[in-house]
Structure formats: C-alpha cells, structure tokens
Amino acid sequence: MIKDVHETVEFLLLEGDDAVRAFGERLRGHLADGRLVLHEDFFWNSPLALWALPRLLQDEVNPSHLVISKGDANYRRILGDRHWPFTTPFEDVASYFLPPLLALRTCKSEVVVGLRTGQAANLTQKDPDWLINGEWGLIQFKPRTGRLE
Q1: Run of H or E including 122
Q2: Beta bridge partner(s), residue 105
Q3: CB 81 within 8 A of CB 46
Q4: Residues 4, 9, 13, 16: what is their CA dihedral angle, to the nearest 10 degrees?
Q5: Confidence category of residue 149, pLDDT binned at 50, 70, 90
Q6: Are strands 101-106 and 67-70 parallel, antiparallel or unpaired?
C-alpha cells in the first residue's frame, strides 16, 4: 500500500546507519521528483494472471524502467499459476510483459521456472519441501520485451 511505502521511507530516514538513511533520502527524492511513482489499483490484489493486466494499467507500466514484483502470490500470477517445466526460462514465460521485470520470491508453492537442469532434483535431495516451506527463494529478471510504440 502507498501508505506503507511512505512509512518505510520515514523509518529509513530515522535509522542510525548512514547508508540506510542515504537510501531513505534517495527514495524520498525519487518520490518527490516523480522518478518513483506509486499507484494503487484493485487489479494488483486480484487473483488474475499478470497477462490479464487491463490496458489502462499496461499503458501506465509499459514505459517503466523496472517493475519489481515481490512475493509468492505475485510470482504465481506472472506464471499464470501454471505448472511449467522447472527449466522453462523465466523470460520466456513472462515475455508478454513489456517492461523489465524483477521477481523476488520465497517459495511457498510448487510453481517455479528458470532452474538449471538437475537443480530441482538436487534441491529435493537436500530438502524435500523446498518448494513449499518458505525457506528457499529466488530472484529472477526479464529484460524489456519489444519496444514502446
């Protein structure tokens, strides 16, 4: 929520660590000059796949230099909550989304892509519940797809 972002920025500005405060200052500056734009829309809380993004929201996010998606539910929405082969490249599945996309996710469901051949088997050997126990995570990136019209 937008209020949570503002509360977080204020918290960072009060931190004792100089680097954390400097980060808070950068965020506050980016919010003030419009480089960081916050917008709420019901779609972001819906269960719809990201490829069902309404045209109005597409027009808003397409010029973005980076879209960051956080959380298991949002990750599943990027993949349409479908069980793709684990080795399917993330950028192939998310190619429908025009702007660069960074996904941050803690694994809490059996939906995942972008793994190397044999990686899922190795992880299952180490931890049979790695897909669902929330102790494993991933960061995946897809560059801009296509170009703006």
Answers
A1: helix 119-126
A2: 138
A3: no
A4: 70
A5: low
A6: parallel
CA distance 125 to 51: 34
Residues 62-108 have pLDDT tens digits of 999 999 999 999 999 999 999 999 999 999 999 999 999 999 999 99
Burial class for 28, CB neighbours closer than 10 Å (0-12, 13-18, 19+): middle
Q: Kindly report the length of the chain.
A: 149
Three-class SS of residue 11? helix
Phi-psi region of 28 (alpha: psi -120 to 50; beta: other; left: phi over 0): alpha
Which H or E run contains 36? Answer: none
Q: What six digits make up the tokens of 91?
A: 């950028």
Q: What is the pLDDT of residues 100-127, one digit of tens each?
A: 999 999 999 999 999 999 999 999 999 9
**What is the enclosing helix (H) or strand (E) of 119?**
helix 119-126
pTM, two decimals, is 0.82
Strands 137-142 and 101-106, how do they pair?
A: antiparallel
Strand partners, 142: 101
Q: How far apart are CA 145 and CA 100, in angstroms?
A: 7
